Amino acid sequence: MAPTSTALTTKVESGSPYQLNHEQTLKASKALLKHMKDTQTEVSTTTEKKNLLSDADDDETTSPIWLTLSTKKHIPSKIALPHPLNTTSTQTICLITADPQRTYKDIVASPAFPPALAARITKVVGIKKIRAKHSQYEAQRKLKAEHDIFLADDRIITALPKLLGKTLYKGSKRPIPISISAPVPKSDGKRIKAAKGEDEKRDAASAPAIAKEIEKALSGTVVNLSASASTAVKIGFSNWDAEMLAGNAQAVAEALIEKHVPAKWRGVRGLHIKGERTAALPIWLADELWADEADVISEEKAEQVKLANVGKKRKAVAAAADEEVVAEGTRVRGKKQKLLAESNDDKLDKEIGERKERLRKQKEEAAKDVVDEVPRASKKSKSKSKKGKAVAA
């Protein structure tokens, strides 16, 4: 177990057996922000050429910062933040909806929709128009440059990676899923199964409900479920204060573990914060690397596995010893185990070499016996055969 002076795990007597240390999170946040600023200053002073492949709207002073969660076993939503990421009134929003898009355009333009939020939504586009007008790379790049935030109907979110490709999904403008369709009808608390094709054609939700869903998406962060045991969630930017970063890190960690980790804190292996091009700084590490006591092998079982793994040399020596015992007509109990216990590499190599030498001699003797039994052709028969060949020619 790690010394108490360097331990990053906090145990309490009541409540959860593990907690995130706010002081450690704040310390790591300050160190990460300082490192990113120093790195950016060094790069700007040493680099003379401009990267032509980088996006013009990418600002290094506002690089995103991520909280990475690694679990002891496989884990895989939106999480509310005390300090929202997308609250700037100047940020424009592109809303990608299911068809028909005209329905949602009318809802955004209706008086029931909040005017301040409607002013930020500069484009409402349906999935059919995405397929028709934004299949080319230049069109996708233009769409990305024109908007700061992308929101998408959760019914068509799975189709967007294929349609928009890495243009949107490689950067920080990955579409955020929201639910903008009418609630599913229920009977006695159970969902009524819709007819085939009707689930995609559900009516749109009301204007206040859609506005509330959009505000919820803007005030939180998105958890993109991963097929591995590690998940990264955006918690802030490099131009933020360390206190804000630490507050978001703690809120995301607690919500993420409570919602998505089966064993809660006991299923977590570590928590780190990192920038886009920085190393990960630990803010919490588990004392135990296993998730269940059944995953730990006792010393006795480990010794049994070790003894069962007998090498090829030992097997060869044991087989040779058994053959010698049978040839002499005597059976000595425990001789095989004695040889295995007393043998070493030099002795094993010597015995294997002697056995190979005996086998080689046996093969040579057998080959000589075969040669002696085969009759040799006489000189007369050879000369007759040569004459026959000449006549035939």
TrEMBL record:
CDD domains associated with the record: Ribosomal_L1
UniProt feature, compositional bias: Basic residues: 377-393
Superkingdom assignment: Eukaryota
UniProt-annotated stretches for the region Disordered: 38-60, 185-206, 334-393
InterPro entries: Ribosomal_uL1-like, Ribosomal_uL1/biogenesis, Ribosomal_uL1_3-a/b-sand
Any Pfam family the entry gives: Ribosomal_L1
Compositionally biased tracts (Basic and acidic residues): 187-204, 344-376
Protein name as catalogued: Putative ribosome biogenesis protein
Organism of provenance: Lachnellula arida
